[in-house]
Each structure stands twice: as structure tokens, then as C-alpha cells.
Automatic annotation (TrEMBL):
Protein name: Myo-inositol-1-phosphate synthase
GO MF, one annotated term: inositol-3-phosphate synthase activity
Family per record: Belongs to the myo-inositol 1-phosphate synthase family.
Domain Myo-inositol-1-phosphate synthase GAPDH-like: 229-333
Gene Ontology BP annotations: inositol biosynthetic process; phospholipid biosynthetic process
Matching SUPFAM superfamilies: Glyceraldehyde-3-phosphate dehydrogenase-like, C-terminal domain, NAD(P)-binding Rossmann-fold domains
Positions in coiled-coil regions: none
Originating organism: Desulfosarcina ovata subsp. ovata
């Protein structure tokens, strides 16, 4: 189930799965399509059943119409081929909650009742009921909930990283300042035994109390903030400066983007969450903090296209100063959607393996991987490869023992 099911990213992922199932596209961009991950017993993308929540009153077909033209050669003439799949998904989408999400998100809500009307207990119970109905209607045993909603403003102070006891106390006492909508989705999902993925930078979607709840309920979870563009390049390039002992003096980044993500990030309080997430990696990789600034601006005409320009000023032998610049131009949803599918498949696999708590081997997918200090993309990816190889060897041993018995 997807939080933000009518958004560009969610609809791109859902259209992509249906297109794969009908032979309209391949798996380019999916990490799990590569060796060694393709040798794991992962769920086939075509077998995934989608549903979720959205706060906007929008027809799924209209939502999909917005992404056509941005996602490669897929166009309206192919929609009839996947029509039945889309109709089934539409039946699985429920009205969402915009509780305490900040004005930028609350302005999108189709119904004022999605805002602050009911108690926290009732809001969570409503989401839990949606989860149970989705599972029952589709005869599902396992479930993944992925947060793809717009970025919420951060919460500072003691509520910024509540314990499980503090979180449950806030829910029971209806402390409406301590949590945001993303907290309620996460709590309902984990409490229902679902794998939980936070692909957003929203701080309230992934704090320590939720991690503790996942341990208690024995379910896997991971986040936060999908790494798809500028930060992906940054975490691949920064290790080069470190391993050549080049001193980075300044790293300036400027991002422009359209779509709903850009519109919400045009609000200063929402942008703060994103900038905090994007700004963490550099110092961790280099071992020191150069002058660094990340700027984000909304350019409506870009639609789902994103451009990032980075200027790196560095110092070499004899204090010689040099520069490196790069420009990244990508389709935001087409970059992120295959990673969402990877995370769903790997999350289901972890659940089937009896794993619980943070899936730290998935750090390479996130700008701010919870519980992980390593931000070097190459080392993060090696950890994921090692995990896959270990599981493959373990499966071979188990198969041999079963054959011998």
C-alpha cells in the first residue's frame, strides 16, 4: 500500500509494474534485476497488488495522464492494454489523512475531515481498518506500506525523536503537536505487521519509537529519503576526493524541479526537511565539513523533470585550487519508481526470511539511511551485494541439507 497513491512517483511505479507484466517494458533501473539479486527468491513484480491512500480527490486515470510524456515512450495508446490492472488498483485506494502535515500539504486535501477532526486513536484505527480491508479483499498474507507522500515539515524539540513509550503516550493522550500524518501511517502499518518503507525525508515518518515498534512486532523497516539524483551522484563522487587526498573547500548544489514535490518544497518549512536530509552525506564521507549549501527552487514548467547543478571547489598538491562541475538532468519519477519496486521486493524477502528491525543493507537506496553511518555509495552497495550473496549461500546450504534428509 502506498501513502500518496495518486502522486507522480506512485503512479509511475504502478504503471511500470503493469507495463512489465504485459511486456511493454523491461526492468531497466531496477537494482534487483541484476546479479546477484536476480538469484534471490524475490516476488515477481507482476504479482504485486497495489493500493494505498491519497488526500486528493482524483481519478487514478487522470493521475496517470499527468505522467504520460514524462516517462519515455509509454503513452496514452497503451493505456487500454493495462486498463484492467488500473481499475483493480483504483478500487484499492482509500481517502488519506493530512493530519498536522503543514499548510502546504493540508491545502491539497479534498475534504476538511482529512485534517485534524478525529482523535489520534481514531485516525490510526481508520488506517488499520483500511489495511485489513485491503488484505482481505485481495487475499494477501504479506504487506508492504511505502510512504511516497509529500515532504512534511520537521518537528523540533523532545518530539523530534520519541521513544515507543513516548509515542504511545502521545497517541493515548491525543497530543496533537507531537506527531504528523506520516507517524500515523507508519504506526498503523507496523502495528498491523506490515513491512514499512519511508521513501520521504519526513522526519516524523521514521523516528526511534517506530523502529522499536517494528522490533516488537518483528517486522522489517527502513528509510529515509530515496537517493535518486544529486545526492546519488554526490555520494559516488565524494569518495574520489577522499581516496586521492584532495581537500574539498566548497560544494555548492542548486536544484530546480517541477511536479507536486517541487510545489510543496517551495514552502520554507517543508524545504527544511529536504535540505537537512540532502546535507548529511558529505561530511560523513570526507571526514570533515567543507563549506556546503544546497538550494531547491520550484520551476513549474519542468513538470517531472529535475535539474541539479553542483560546483565543487577543491585543493590539490602545492595548494593548487581546481574545480569540478556537473549537471544532472533526470526524470524524477522514472529514476525513483524502480527503486521503490526494489525496496518492496527486498522488504518482502526480509520478512519471509524472519528478519525484523532496520534493514541496514538497504542503505544505498537512501539519502539518510537510519542507523547507518556509512554514506559512500560504493561501500553501501557492496553491503547490499554481500547480503544477497550470503542469502544465496544460505539457501544453497539449506537446500542441500533438505536433500540429504
Amino acid at each position: 500500500m502506498i501513502v500518496g497513491a495518486m502522486g507522480h512517483l506512485a503512479t509511475t511505479a504502478m504503471v511500470g509494474v503493469s507495463a512489465m507484466k504485459h511486456g511493454l517494458c523491461g526492468q531497466t533501473g531496477m537494482v534487483t534485476a541484476m546479479d546477484p539479486f536476480s538469484r534471490l527468491d524475490l516476488e515477481d513484480p507482476g504479482d504485486l497488488i497495489f493500493g494505498g491512500w491519497d488526500i486528493r480527490k482524483m481519478d487514478l486515470h487522470a493521475a496517470i495522464g499527468r505522467i504520460l510524456g514524462d516517462i519515455g515512450p509509454f503513452d496514452a495508446t497503451q493505456i487500454p492494454i493495462i486498463q484492467n490492472d488500473l481499475d483493480a488498483i483504483a478500487r484499492n485506494i482509500f481517502p488519506g489523512s493530512a493530519f498536522n502535515s503543514g499548510s502546504a500539504i493540508q491545502e491539497l486535501a479534498a475534504d476538511r475531515s482529512m485534517l485534524n477532526g478525529r482523535s489520534l486513536v481514531d485516525l490510526i484505527a481508520g488506517l488499520a481498518s483500511d489495511i485489513e480491508r485491503f488484505k482481505a479483499d485481495n487475499d494477501l498474507e504479506n504487506l508492504v506500506v511505502v510512504n511516497l507522500a509529500s515532504t512534511e515539515p520537521p518537528i523540533d524539540g523532545p518530539a523530534a525523536d520519541m521513544s515507543l513509550a513516548g509515542l504511545e503516550r502521545a497517541i493515548q493522550t491525543d497530543d496533537r503537536t507531537a506527531v504528523r500524518a506520516s507517524t500515523l501511517y507508519a504506526y498503523a502499518a507496523i502495528d498491523a505487521g506490515a513491512v514499512y518503507i519511508n521513501f520521504t525525508p519526513s522526519q516524523c515518518a521514521m523516528f526511534s519509537g517506530l523502529v522499536d515498534l517494528a522490533q516488537k512486532k518483528r517486522v522489517p523497516l527502513m528509510g529515509s529519503d530515496g537517493k535518486t539524483g544529486e545526492t546519488l551522484v554526490k555520494t559516488a563522487l565524494a569518495p574520489m576526493f577522499a581516496c586521492r587526498n584532495l581537500n574539498v573547500l566548497s560544494w555548492q548544489g542548486y536544484n530546480i524541479l517541477g511536479n507536486m514535490d517541487g510545489a510543496v518544497l517551495a514552502h520554507a518549512e517543508n524545504k527544511e526537511s529536504k535540505i537537512r536530509s540532502k546535507d548529511k552525506a558529505l561530511a560523513r564521507i570526507l571526514g570533515y565539513r567543507p563549506h556546503s549549501q544546497v538550494s531547491i527552487d520550484y520551476v513549474p514548467s519542468l513538470g517531472d523533470r529535475k535539474t541539479a547543478w553542483d560546483f565543487i571547489h577543491f585543493e590539490g598538491f602545492l595548494n593548487t585550487r581546481m574545480t569540478l562541475q556537473f549537471t544532472w538532468q533526470g526524470c524524477d519519477s522514472a529514476l525513483a519508481a524502480p527503486l521503490v519496486l526494489d525496496l518492496i521486493r527486498l522488504g518482502l524477502f526480509a520478512k519471509q526470511q524472519g528478519e525484523s528491525g532496520l534493514m541496514q543493507h538497504l542503505a544505498c537506496f537512501f539519502k539518510s539511511p537510519v542507523g547507518v553511518e556509512e554514506h559512500d555509495l560504493h561501500r553501501q552497495f557492496q553491503r547490499l551485494q554481500d547480503y544477497a550473496e550470503q542469502k544465496i549461500k544460505q539457501g544453497s546450504r539449506d537446500g542441500l541439507l533438505e536433500a540429504l534428509n
